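Action item from last week, closing it out:
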Amino acid sequence: MPRLARTACVTISSAGEVDYSASNPADLSALAEHAQDTMQVAQLGLSAIGLLLVRAAPEMDTGEISGDAIESLGWLMAELGELAGCCFALAASCREHLADATPRPA
């Protein structure tokens, strides 16, 4: 199952957001883990693209790599950064709700 396909298991409110209190804690925990994994993949991908761009800099100067390709990479990097940020917020929200819902020892 794709990592974030787990979102289909959580309850969604009428506003289109995760209803943490109505969702199964096991599903929230799994969603938090999958969101964190997705965030890490996006961040590692961004790092790899950055390293490739550094190595490709001479080819950019000579025009061997088109400006369109560089622009497309820029848009991809922006989207991956946004995805990583959304996954971070989703994982944090799931874990925050789970921590609030877990009874603390007396």
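Closing note: The CA atoms of residues 15 and 22 lie 14 Å apart.
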